[in-house]
Amino acid sequence: MASIKTRSNLSRREFMRLSAAAAAGVSLIPGLSCSSTTIPSPMKRSFGRIGFDVTSIGLGGQSSLMWTPEGIEPVDIILKAFDLGINYYDTSNAYGPSQANYGKAFRKLNLVPGQKGYNQKLRDSIFLTTKTMVRWAKGDYPKLDNVRNSTDGTHGGGAVADLKRSLSLMFGNDDGTYPEGAYLNMILIHNLTNFEEVDVVYKGLETPLDINGNFGALVALRDYRDGTNITGLNPKNEKLVRHLGFSGHYNAPAMIDMIQRDKWDLLEGMLVAINVNDRRYLNMQYNVIPVAQARNMAIIGMKVFADGAMYTKEPGWSNKPADVVRIIGTDSVPSKPLIEYALTTPGIHTLIIGIGEINDNPLKCQLVQNYYAAQIKPDALGEKERRELEKIGERARNGNTNYFQLADTGLTPPRNAVLTKSDGVKLTWDTSYAGNEPISHYEIVSDGKVVGTVPHHPQASKEPFSFAIQSGKEFKIVAVDAIGRKSETEVLV
Protein backbone atom coordinates (compact mmCIF):
# COMPACT_ATOMS: atom_id res chain seq x y z
CA MET A 1 0.00 0.00 0.00
CA ALA A 2 1.05 3.55 -0.60
CA SER A 3 2.20 5.50 2.40
CA ILE A 4 3.33 8.99 3.15
CA LYS A 5 5.35 10.49 5.96
CA THR A 6 3.29 12.61 8.33
CA ARG A 7 4.82 15.91 9.34
CA SER A 8 4.20 18.68 11.82
CA ASN A 9 2.72 21.06 9.25
CA LEU A 10 0.20 18.64 7.75
CA SER A 11 -2.55 20.92 6.49
CA ARG A 12 -6.25 20.48 7.16
CA ARG A 13 -6.83 20.07 3.42
CA GLU A 14 -4.22 17.31 3.23
CA PHE A 15 -5.73 15.54 6.19
CA MET A 16 -9.21 15.72 4.67
CA ARG A 17 -7.85 14.27 1.42
CA LEU A 18 -6.14 11.45 3.27
CA SER A 19 -9.18 10.74 5.40
CA ALA A 20 -11.42 10.63 2.33
CA ALA A 21 -9.03 8.22 0.66
CA ALA A 22 -8.93 6.04 3.74
CA ALA A 23 -12.71 6.06 3.95
CA ALA A 24 -12.75 4.76 0.40
CA GLY A 25 -10.53 1.86 1.47
CA VAL A 26 -7.13 3.31 0.53
CA SER A 27 -4.82 3.27 3.55
CA LEU A 28 -2.49 6.21 3.02
CA ILE A 29 -1.36 6.56 6.63
CA PRO A 30 -1.04 2.99 7.90
CA GLY A 31 0.98 4.07 10.94
CA LEU A 32 -1.51 6.65 12.17
CA SER A 33 -3.20 5.35 15.30
CA CYS A 34 -4.13 6.45 18.79
CA SER A 35 -0.67 5.47 19.96
CA SER A 36 1.26 6.73 16.94
CA THR A 37 4.39 8.79 17.55
CA THR A 38 4.26 10.21 13.99
CA ILE A 39 1.17 12.33 14.52
CA PRO A 40 1.97 16.02 14.02
CA SER A 41 2.62 18.17 17.04
CA PRO A 42 -0.57 19.79 18.35
CA MET A 43 -1.47 23.38 17.64
CA LYS A 44 -1.29 25.60 20.72
CA ARG A 45 -2.78 28.93 21.72
CA SER A 46 -1.84 31.47 24.37
CA PHE A 47 -4.07 30.79 27.39
CA GLY A 48 -5.36 34.21 28.39
CA ARG A 49 -3.20 35.95 30.97
CA ILE A 50 -2.11 32.70 32.60
CA GLY A 51 1.17 32.46 30.70
CA PHE A 52 0.70 28.96 29.30
CA ASP A 53 0.44 27.69 25.73
CA VAL A 54 -2.54 25.34 25.67
CA THR A 55 -3.31 22.74 23.02
CA SER A 56 -6.45 23.58 21.06
CA ILE A 57 -8.06 20.39 22.32
CA GLY A 58 -8.19 19.09 25.87
CA LEU A 59 -9.47 15.87 27.41
CA GLY A 60 -12.88 16.15 29.06
CA GLY A 61 -13.33 14.43 32.41
CA GLN A 62 -16.78 12.95 31.78
CA SER A 63 -17.85 10.46 29.10
CA SER A 64 -16.00 7.16 29.60
CA LEU A 65 -13.80 8.59 32.35
CA MET A 66 -16.96 8.92 34.43
CA TRP A 67 -19.61 6.56 33.07
CA THR A 68 -17.38 3.78 31.79
CA PRO A 69 -19.15 1.38 29.40
CA GLU A 70 -18.28 -2.30 29.56
CA GLY A 71 -15.10 -3.09 27.67
CA ILE A 72 -13.65 0.42 27.91
CA GLU A 73 -10.50 1.18 29.93
CA PRO A 74 -10.60 4.86 30.95
CA VAL A 75 -6.93 4.96 31.94
CA ASP A 76 -5.98 4.04 28.37
CA ILE A 77 -7.90 7.07 27.09
CA ILE A 78 -5.88 9.36 29.36
CA LEU A 79 -2.60 7.73 28.33
CA LYS A 80 -3.43 8.11 24.64
CA ALA A 81 -4.18 11.79 25.15
CA PHE A 82 -0.68 12.16 26.57
CA ASP A 83 0.68 10.25 23.57
CA LEU A 84 -0.93 12.80 21.27
CA GLY A 85 0.65 15.70 23.13
CA ILE A 86 -2.62 17.07 24.52
CA ASN A 87 -1.75 19.24 27.52
CA TYR A 88 -5.12 20.32 28.99
CA TYR A 89 -6.90 17.86 31.31
CA ASP A 90 -10.33 18.35 32.86
CA THR A 91 -12.09 16.62 35.73
CA SER A 92 -14.34 17.41 38.71
CA ASN A 93 -15.38 16.34 42.18
CA ALA A 94 -18.81 15.85 40.64
CA TYR A 95 -17.57 13.29 38.10
CA GLY A 96 -17.61 10.10 40.16
CA PRO A 97 -14.54 7.96 39.38
CA SER A 98 -13.01 10.46 36.93
CA GLN A 99 -10.41 11.83 39.35
CA ALA A 100 -9.50 8.33 40.53
CA ASN A 101 -8.97 7.29 36.89
CA TYR A 102 -6.60 10.22 36.45
CA GLY A 103 -4.81 9.05 39.58
CA LYS A 104 -4.24 5.61 38.07
CA ALA A 105 -2.94 7.14 34.85
CA PHE A 106 -0.68 9.56 36.71
CA ARG A 107 1.00 6.69 38.50
CA LYS A 108 1.75 5.03 35.19
CA LEU A 109 3.14 8.33 33.90
CA ASN A 110 5.24 9.00 37.03
CA LEU A 111 3.38 12.21 37.77
CA VAL A 112 3.01 11.70 41.53
CA PRO A 113 5.46 13.77 43.61
CA GLY A 114 7.60 11.58 45.84
CA GLN A 115 7.00 8.56 43.61
CA LYS A 116 10.15 6.89 42.37
CA GLY A 117 10.95 8.33 38.95
CA TYR A 118 8.68 11.35 39.42
CA ASN A 119 8.65 13.26 36.13
CA GLN A 120 8.32 16.85 37.24
CA LYS A 121 9.04 18.15 33.74
CA LEU A 122 6.05 16.26 32.35
CA ARG A 123 3.86 17.36 35.26
CA ASP A 124 4.76 21.01 34.70
CA SER A 125 4.03 20.68 30.96
CA ILE A 126 0.33 19.92 31.46
CA PHE A 127 -2.57 22.01 32.75
CA LEU A 128 -4.79 20.06 35.17
CA THR A 129 -8.17 21.54 36.09
CA THR A 130 -10.76 20.25 38.52
CA LYS A 131 -14.07 21.72 39.69
CA THR A 132 -16.23 22.12 42.76
CA MET A 133 -20.01 22.38 42.70
CA VAL A 134 -19.98 23.88 46.20
CA ARG A 135 -20.51 27.63 46.61
CA TRP A 136 -19.49 27.84 50.28
CA ALA A 137 -15.99 27.54 51.72
CA LYS A 138 -16.97 25.28 54.62
CA GLY A 139 -19.24 22.30 54.97
CA ASP A 140 -21.84 23.84 57.26
CA TYR A 141 -23.89 25.30 54.42
CA PRO A 142 -26.38 28.04 55.30
CA LYS A 143 -29.67 27.06 53.68
CA LEU A 144 -30.46 29.51 50.89
CA ASP A 145 -32.93 29.11 48.06
CA ASN A 146 -31.49 28.60 44.58
CA VAL A 147 -27.95 27.99 45.87
CA ARG A 148 -26.27 24.72 45.01
CA ASN A 149 -24.26 23.10 47.81
CA SER A 150 -23.08 19.97 46.02
CA THR A 151 -23.92 17.78 43.08
CA ASP A 152 -25.86 15.05 44.81
CA GLY A 153 -25.79 15.86 48.52
CA THR A 154 -22.96 13.44 49.24
CA HIS A 155 -20.02 15.84 49.10
CA GLY A 156 -19.37 17.37 52.50
CA GLY A 157 -16.83 19.87 53.70
CA GLY A 158 -17.24 22.77 51.29
CA ALA A 159 -15.06 24.01 48.45
CA VAL A 160 -11.80 23.66 50.42
CA ALA A 161 -12.61 20.01 51.11
CA ASP A 162 -13.26 19.49 47.39
CA LEU A 163 -9.86 20.97 46.55
CA LYS A 164 -8.10 18.58 48.91
CA ARG A 165 -10.26 15.65 47.79
CA SER A 166 -9.09 16.23 44.21
CA LEU A 167 -5.44 16.14 45.23
CA SER A 168 -5.95 13.01 47.31
CA LEU A 169 -7.73 11.19 44.49
CA MET A 170 -5.25 12.12 41.77
CA PHE A 171 -1.96 12.20 43.66
CA GLY A 172 -2.62 10.49 47.01
CA ASN A 173 -4.40 7.38 48.20
CA ASP A 174 -7.96 8.72 48.42
CA ASP A 175 -7.60 8.90 52.19
CA GLY A 176 -7.59 12.66 52.46
CA THR A 177 -3.83 12.95 52.18
CA TYR A 178 -1.70 14.06 49.26
CA PRO A 179 2.07 14.18 48.76
CA GLU A 180 4.10 17.33 49.25
CA GLY A 181 4.55 19.08 45.92
CA ALA A 182 1.16 18.00 44.52
CA TYR A 183 -0.81 20.83 42.97
CA LEU A 184 -3.67 21.66 40.64
CA ASN A 185 -3.28 24.20 37.89
CA MET A 186 -6.83 25.47 38.30
CA ILE A 187 -10.03 24.86 40.20
CA LEU A 188 -13.34 26.11 38.80
CA ILE A 189 -16.48 26.96 40.74
CA HIS A 190 -18.63 24.82 38.52
CA ASN A 191 -21.95 25.33 36.76
CA LEU A 192 -23.06 28.69 38.12
CA THR A 193 -26.74 28.98 37.28
CA ASN A 194 -28.14 32.11 38.95
CA PHE A 195 -27.33 35.44 40.61
CA GLU A 196 -27.97 34.09 44.11
CA GLU A 197 -25.11 31.63 43.70
CA VAL A 198 -22.81 34.46 42.61
CA ASP A 199 -23.80 36.35 45.77
CA VAL A 200 -22.69 33.42 47.91
CA VAL A 201 -19.41 32.90 46.06
CA TYR A 202 -18.39 36.51 46.81
CA LYS A 203 -19.31 36.45 50.52
CA GLY A 204 -16.25 37.38 52.55
CA LEU A 205 -14.92 39.49 49.70
CA GLU A 206 -17.78 41.91 49.10
CA THR A 207 -18.96 41.53 52.69
CA PRO A 208 -17.04 41.44 55.98
CA LEU A 209 -15.18 38.19 56.52
CA ASP A 210 -16.34 36.32 59.62
CA ILE A 211 -13.90 33.44 60.06
CA ASN A 212 -16.14 31.93 62.74
CA GLY A 213 -19.04 31.75 60.32
CA ASN A 214 -19.19 30.62 56.71
CA PHE A 215 -18.20 32.53 53.60
CA GLY A 216 -17.93 32.04 49.86
CA ALA A 217 -15.65 29.69 48.00
CA LEU A 218 -13.54 32.36 46.33
CA VAL A 219 -11.98 33.96 49.40
CA ALA A 220 -11.00 30.55 50.79
CA LEU A 221 -9.62 29.21 47.52
CA ARG A 222 -7.56 32.39 47.24
CA ASP A 223 -5.79 31.36 50.46
CA TYR A 224 -4.82 28.04 48.85
CA ARG A 225 -3.64 29.81 45.73
CA ASP A 226 -1.53 32.40 47.53
CA GLY A 227 -0.39 30.38 50.54
CA THR A 228 -2.14 32.78 52.94
CA ASN A 229 -4.45 32.08 55.86
CA ILE A 230 -6.79 35.07 55.86
CA THR A 231 -9.82 32.79 56.33
CA GLY A 232 -8.28 30.57 58.99
CA LEU A 233 -8.79 27.54 56.72
CA ASN A 234 -5.16 27.26 55.58
CA PRO A 235 -3.13 27.05 58.82
CA LYS A 236 -0.19 25.38 57.04
CA ASN A 237 -0.08 28.16 54.42
CA GLU A 238 -0.23 25.59 51.63
CA LYS A 239 -0.22 26.48 47.94
CA LEU A 240 -2.35 23.78 46.36
CA VAL A 241 -3.77 25.49 43.27
CA ARG A 242 -2.30 28.07 40.90
CA HIS A 243 -5.35 29.61 39.24
CA LEU A 244 -9.04 30.14 39.99
CA GLY A 245 -12.02 30.33 37.69
CA PHE A 246 -15.63 29.32 37.14
CA SER A 247 -17.86 27.60 34.63
CA GLY A 248 -21.38 27.87 33.29
CA HIS A 249 -23.64 26.14 30.78
CA TYR A 250 -26.91 27.89 31.41
CA ASN A 251 -27.15 31.54 32.36
CA ALA A 252 -24.94 33.99 30.45
CA PRO A 253 -26.20 37.03 32.44
CA ALA A 254 -25.25 35.43 35.77
CA MET A 255 -21.85 34.54 34.35
CA ILE A 256 -21.35 38.15 33.24
CA ASP A 257 -22.18 39.24 36.78
CA MET A 258 -19.59 36.80 38.14
CA ILE A 259 -16.87 38.45 36.05
CA GLN A 260 -17.98 42.05 36.58
CA ARG A 261 -17.88 41.68 40.38
CA ASP A 262 -14.29 40.44 40.40
CA LYS A 263 -12.51 43.60 41.61
CA TRP A 264 -9.58 41.49 42.81
CA ASP A 265 -8.70 39.87 39.46
CA LEU A 266 -9.11 36.45 41.04
CA LEU A 267 -10.79 34.81 38.05
CA GLU A 268 -8.30 33.74 35.40
CA GLY A 269 -10.29 31.01 33.66
CA MET A 270 -13.81 30.36 32.40
CA LEU A 271 -15.31 27.13 31.08
CA VAL A 272 -18.33 27.86 28.89
CA ALA A 273 -20.78 25.98 26.68
CA ILE A 274 -20.34 26.75 22.97
CA ASN A 275 -21.50 24.94 19.85
CA VAL A 276 -23.10 25.55 16.45
CA ASN A 277 -26.56 25.92 18.04
CA ASP A 278 -25.44 28.61 20.50
CA ARG A 279 -27.20 31.46 18.65
CA ARG A 280 -30.53 29.65 18.88
CA TYR A 281 -30.50 30.22 22.66
CA LEU A 282 -29.54 33.08 25.00
CA ASN A 283 -26.09 32.81 23.55
CA MET A 284 -22.64 32.81 25.06
CA GLN A 285 -20.66 34.09 22.06
CA TYR A 286 -22.11 37.62 22.06
CA ASN A 287 -22.68 37.90 25.81
CA VAL A 288 -20.33 36.38 28.38
CA ILE A 289 -17.46 35.26 26.14
CA PRO A 290 -16.57 38.83 25.03
CA VAL A 291 -16.66 39.96 28.68
CA ALA A 292 -14.22 37.21 29.69
CA GLN A 293 -12.10 38.04 26.65
CA ALA A 294 -11.99 41.71 27.71
CA ARG A 295 -10.54 40.57 31.05
CA ASN A 296 -7.99 38.40 29.20
CA MET A 297 -9.25 35.25 30.86
CA ALA A 298 -8.36 31.76 29.70
CA ILE A 299 -11.53 30.50 27.99
CA ILE A 300 -12.30 26.81 27.61
CA GLY A 301 -15.20 25.63 25.46
CA MET A 302 -17.41 22.64 26.25
CA LYS A 303 -20.58 20.97 24.98
CA VAL A 304 -19.36 21.12 21.38
CA PHE A 305 -21.65 18.14 20.63
CA ALA A 306 -24.36 19.41 23.03
CA ASP A 307 -23.44 16.74 25.56
CA GLY A 308 -24.15 14.06 22.97
CA ALA A 309 -27.57 15.43 21.98
CA MET A 310 -26.22 16.11 18.48
CA TYR A 311 -25.90 12.34 18.14
CA THR A 312 -27.06 9.26 20.04
CA LYS A 313 -28.21 10.71 23.37
CA GLU A 314 -31.55 12.31 24.16
CA PRO A 315 -31.28 15.90 25.43
CA GLY A 316 -30.78 15.81 29.19
CA TRP A 317 -27.95 15.33 31.66
CA SER A 318 -26.02 12.08 31.23
CA ASN A 319 -26.14 9.66 34.14
CA LYS A 320 -25.24 6.18 32.91
CA PRO A 321 -22.85 4.32 30.57
CA ALA A 322 -25.54 4.05 27.88
CA ASP A 323 -25.43 7.84 27.56
CA VAL A 324 -21.80 7.78 26.41
CA VAL A 325 -21.48 8.63 22.71
CA ARG A 326 -19.19 6.15 20.95
CA ILE A 327 -19.48 7.28 17.33
CA ILE A 328 -17.57 9.91 15.35
CA GLY A 329 -20.28 12.09 13.91
CA THR A 330 -22.84 11.09 11.28
CA ASP A 331 -23.24 11.75 7.58
CA SER A 332 -25.69 14.58 8.24
CA VAL A 333 -23.91 16.00 11.30
CA PRO A 334 -20.17 15.37 10.96
CA SER A 335 -18.09 16.10 14.05
CA LYS A 336 -15.23 18.00 12.43
CA PRO A 337 -17.10 21.22 11.49
CA LEU A 338 -18.70 21.31 14.94
CA ILE A 339 -15.24 21.40 16.49
CA GLU A 340 -14.06 23.98 13.98
CA TYR A 341 -17.01 26.24 14.76
CA ALA A 342 -16.29 26.20 18.48
CA LEU A 343 -12.57 26.84 18.01
CA THR A 344 -13.13 29.79 15.67
CA THR A 345 -15.49 31.48 18.13
CA PRO A 346 -13.62 34.65 19.11
CA GLY A 347 -12.13 34.26 22.58
CA ILE A 348 -12.07 30.46 22.77
CA HIS A 349 -8.61 29.02 23.46
CA THR A 350 -9.25 25.29 23.82
CA LEU A 351 -12.08 22.74 23.90
CA ILE A 352 -12.64 19.90 26.30
CA ILE A 353 -14.27 16.90 24.66
CA GLY A 354 -15.18 13.71 26.48
CA ILE A 355 -14.07 10.49 24.81
CA GLY A 356 -16.29 7.43 24.57
CA GLU A 357 -13.70 5.09 23.09
CA ILE A 358 -10.40 4.96 21.27
CA ASN A 359 -9.35 2.68 18.44
CA ASP A 360 -6.12 1.84 16.63
CA ASN A 361 -7.90 2.61 13.36
CA PRO A 362 -7.58 6.41 13.08
CA LEU A 363 -10.92 6.69 11.29
CA LYS A 364 -12.65 4.99 14.22
CA CYS A 365 -10.69 6.71 16.97
CA GLN A 366 -12.61 9.60 18.52
CA LEU A 367 -9.46 10.99 20.08
CA VAL A 368 -7.47 11.12 16.83
CA GLN A 369 -10.37 12.50 14.80
CA ASN A 370 -11.11 15.21 17.35
CA TYR A 371 -7.41 15.98 17.61
CA TYR A 372 -7.07 16.61 13.88
CA ALA A 373 -10.27 18.63 13.70
CA ALA A 374 -8.87 20.90 16.42
CA GLN A 375 -5.80 21.84 14.39
CA ILE A 376 -7.33 25.10 13.24
CA LYS A 377 -6.32 28.72 13.70
CA PRO A 378 -8.68 31.04 15.59
CA ASP A 379 -9.32 33.18 12.49
CA ALA A 380 -9.49 30.34 9.95
CA LEU A 381 -13.23 30.83 9.33
CA GLY A 382 -15.02 34.08 8.58
CA GLU A 383 -18.47 34.94 9.88
CA LYS A 384 -20.13 33.82 6.63
CA GLU A 385 -18.46 30.42 6.86
CA ARG A 386 -19.45 30.09 10.51
CA ARG A 387 -23.08 30.81 9.65
CA GLU A 388 -22.94 28.05 7.06
CA LEU A 389 -21.72 25.63 9.72
CA GLU A 390 -24.69 26.57 11.90
CA LYS A 391 -26.93 24.95 9.29
CA ILE A 392 -25.36 21.62 10.24
CA GLY A 393 -26.62 22.10 13.79
CA GLU A 394 -30.16 22.54 12.51
CA ARG A 395 -30.08 18.94 11.27
CA ALA A 396 -29.72 17.57 14.80
CA ARG A 397 -33.16 17.56 16.46
CA ASN A 398 -34.07 20.64 14.40
CA GLY A 399 -31.42 22.55 16.32
CA ASN A 400 -33.11 21.94 19.69
CA THR A 401 -30.12 20.36 21.35
CA ASN A 402 -28.88 22.80 24.00
CA TYR A 403 -31.12 21.77 26.88
CA PHE A 404 -28.49 23.22 29.25
CA GLN A 405 -28.89 26.81 27.95
CA LEU A 406 -31.47 29.53 28.64
CA ALA A 407 -34.02 30.21 25.92
CA ASP A 408 -33.38 33.08 23.54
CA THR A 409 -35.00 36.33 24.67
CA GLY A 410 -33.85 38.51 21.80
CA LEU A 411 -32.05 41.81 22.25
CA THR A 412 -32.90 43.20 25.68
CA PRO A 413 -33.26 46.90 26.57
CA PRO A 414 -30.36 48.63 28.32
CA ARG A 415 -30.54 47.80 32.03
CA ASN A 416 -30.44 49.85 35.23
CA ALA A 417 -30.77 53.18 33.43
CA VAL A 418 -30.22 56.18 35.71
CA LEU A 419 -30.52 59.90 35.04
CA THR A 420 -28.71 62.43 37.20
CA LYS A 421 -28.78 66.23 36.93
CA SER A 422 -25.74 68.34 37.72
CA ASP A 423 -24.67 71.03 35.25
CA GLY A 424 -26.70 69.19 32.63
CA VAL A 425 -27.96 65.66 32.35
CA LYS A 426 -25.96 62.46 32.69
CA LEU A 427 -27.36 59.10 31.64
CA THR A 428 -25.82 55.83 32.81
CA TRP A 429 -26.85 52.25 32.06
CA ASP A 430 -25.66 48.67 32.08
CA THR A 431 -25.21 46.44 29.07
CA SER A 432 -28.07 45.02 27.10
CA TYR A 433 -27.98 41.27 26.50
CA ALA A 434 -27.52 40.30 22.87
CA GLY A 435 -29.95 38.22 20.89
CA ASN A 436 -28.73 36.19 17.92
CA GLU A 437 -26.69 39.12 16.59
CA PRO A 438 -24.01 41.13 18.39
CA ILE A 439 -24.84 44.53 19.83
CA SER A 440 -23.54 47.44 17.74
CA HIS A 441 -24.23 50.62 19.73
CA TYR A 442 -26.64 52.59 21.87
CA GLU A 443 -28.67 55.57 20.65
CA ILE A 444 -29.46 58.41 23.02
CA VAL A 445 -32.89 59.91 22.32
CA SER A 446 -33.86 63.28 23.85
CA ASP A 447 -37.33 64.71 23.33
CA GLY A 448 -37.88 62.33 20.41
CA LYS A 449 -34.60 63.05 18.59
CA VAL A 450 -31.39 61.00 18.45
CA VAL A 451 -28.78 63.29 19.99
CA GLY A 452 -25.85 60.87 20.21
CA THR A 453 -24.56 57.33 20.01
CA VAL A 454 -22.32 55.28 22.29
CA PRO A 455 -20.46 52.28 20.84
CA HIS A 456 -21.14 49.00 22.59
CA HIS A 457 -18.23 47.25 24.26
CA PRO A 458 -18.07 44.28 26.62
CA GLN A 459 -18.90 45.64 30.07
CA ALA A 460 -16.15 43.89 32.00
CA SER A 461 -16.76 45.64 35.34
CA LYS A 462 -19.61 47.33 37.18
CA GLU A 463 -18.61 50.66 35.62
CA PRO A 464 -21.69 51.60 33.54
CA PHE A 465 -21.99 53.14 30.10
CA SER A 466 -22.57 56.89 30.24
CA PHE A 467 -23.61 59.88 28.14
CA ALA A 468 -23.77 63.56 29.06
CA ILE A 469 -26.21 66.04 27.52
CA GLN A 470 -27.01 69.66 28.32
CA SER A 471 -30.78 69.54 28.53
CA GLY A 472 -33.99 67.70 27.73
CA LYS A 473 -37.29 66.56 29.21
CA GLU A 474 -37.77 62.99 27.94
CA PHE A 475 -34.98 60.49 27.39
CA LYS A 476 -34.59 57.00 25.98
CA ILE A 477 -31.61 54.73 25.59
CA VAL A 478 -31.90 52.38 22.63
CA ALA A 479 -29.77 49.28 22.07
CA VAL A 480 -29.09 48.54 18.40
CA ASP A 481 -27.73 45.24 17.12
CA ALA A 482 -25.60 44.47 14.06
CA ILE A 483 -28.59 44.19 11.71
CA GLY A 484 -30.37 47.27 13.02
CA ARG A 485 -32.89 45.75 15.41
CA LYS A 486 -33.62 47.95 18.41
CA SER A 487 -34.69 47.61 22.02
CA GLU A 488 -35.23 50.66 24.20
CA THR A 489 -35.68 51.76 27.76
CA GLU A 490 -37.21 55.00 28.91
CA VAL A 491 -35.37 57.05 31.52
CA LEU A 492 -37.62 59.03 33.82
CA VAL A 493 -36.62 62.54 34.88
Keywords:
4-stranded antiparallel β-sheet, Immunoglobulin-like, 2 domains, globular, TIM Barrel, 493 residues, disordered N terminus, single chain, 8-stranded parallel β-sheet, 17 strands, alpha/beta
Task: Describe it.
It contains twelve helices and 17 strands. It folds into two domains: 31-399, TIM Barrel, CATH 3.20.20.100; 415-491, Immunoglobulins (Immunoglobulin-like). It is an alpha/beta fold. Residues 1-33 have low confidence and may be disordered. The strands form four sheets. The chain has an eight-stranded parallel β-sheet with strand order 3-10-9-8-7-6-5-4. The protein has a four-stranded antiparallel β-sheet with strand order 14-13-16-17, with no helix packed on it. A three-stranded antiparallel β-sheet has the order 11-12-15, with no helix packed on it.
Gyration radius, rounded: 24 Å
Give the N-terminus to C-terminus distance in angstroms: 80 Å
Are there runs of 5+ residues with pLDDT below 50, and where? 1-33
Shape: globular
For the biggest β-sheet, the strand order reads: 3-10-9-8-7-6-5-4
Strand content: 15-25%
Main pleated-sheet profile? 8 strands, parallel
**Number of helical segments with 4 or more residues:** 12
Total strands: 17
**Assigned CATH class of the largest domain:** Alpha Beta
| Helix vs. strand class | alpha/beta
Q: How many domains make up the 3D coordinates?
A: 2
Which CATH-level-2 architecture of the largest domain?
Alpha-Beta Barrel
* Mean pLDDT across all amino acids: 91
Report the CATH superfamily of the largest domain.
NADP-dependent oxidoreductase domain
CATH topology of the largest domain: TIM Barrel
The helix content, as a percent range, equals 10-25%
Order of helices and strands: HEEEHEHHEHEHHEHEHEHEHHEEEEEEE
